[in-house]
Each structure stands twice: as structure tokens, then as C-alpha cells.
Amino acid sequence: xxRPAVAPQPVILPAEIPPGVDWVTLPNGVRTLAYTQPPAPAxxxxxxxxxxxxxxxxxxxxxxxxxxxxxxxxxGLSYAVPGLIAMSQAxxxxxxxxxxxxIAIPLLLRTGRRAVGSSGSGGRTTTHITQNITATGLFGxxxxxxxxx
Length: 149
Known about the structure:
The chain is of the alpha+beta class and 149 residues long. 44% of the residues lie in helices and 16% in strands. It has one helix at 54-119, and strands at residues 21-25, 31-35, 129-135, 142-148. A two-stranded antiparallel sheet has the order 1-2. The protein has a two-stranded antiparallel sheet with strand order 3-4. The chain starts with 20 loop residues before the first strand and ends with a strand.
């Protein structure tokens, strides 16, 4: 390995070496002063035990209970579905019957009255009342006639 001839540099040493500075040997064999890193503090191998918060304990205990409740509700609904379908159909049938009754009863009564009145067995005739009312002005006296036919 070829090394050029270099005049040696004079070494000036400080009167006191400050902390964090030390003699080091470089890879090419030259010894010099350099800043060094302080040694790392010894790491604790066992971390300190930490307590579990109360809310975390409560949540951990409630989670299976809530899950079981949801599962039980799902099973209960699966057993109740046929009955719920039957009740739904019964309610729709009752609503249809009510609507039919509201429409059909007045029609039957009206038809029954016409049949009784047109047969002549009751002997009733329809009375027509006509009113003719006249007035002059907004607050004028009103006059009127009532005619029975």
C-alpha cells in the first residue's frame, strides 16, 4: 500500500480534556481526540407492572354477556317468526274486513231504504222543502218563503 510522505503535524494537546472527549484509534491506525457517546444507561429488563383500569375490566366482563344476549335474541326471533307472520296476516285481514264493512254497510242500508220506499208498502212519499230568501244590502233585513211540496 502506497502512502505519500506527509510532514508530521505538531500535536497540540489541550490542558484539560473535557468530558465526552477521549483518545480514539481510527481504522487507519491514527490515534486522535474525538467526541465519544456516553455509555447507554442499563435498560431495565422487567417493566413495572401496571394496573388494569376499572373501565377495561368492566368492558371485558360485559362483552361476552352482551354477545350471549344478542345470540339469545336471535334464537328467540327465529322461533317467533312463524307466529309473527301469522299475526301480521291476521292484522291485514282484520283491516280489510273493517274497510269492507265501512263501505258495505251504508250501501246495504241505502239499498234497503230504496226497496222499502219504492214498493209502496210503507205509503211514505218524499217531502221537498224549498226556501227562497232575499236580502238587500250587507246588513239589510232578510225576507224569505218556505214551500212544502
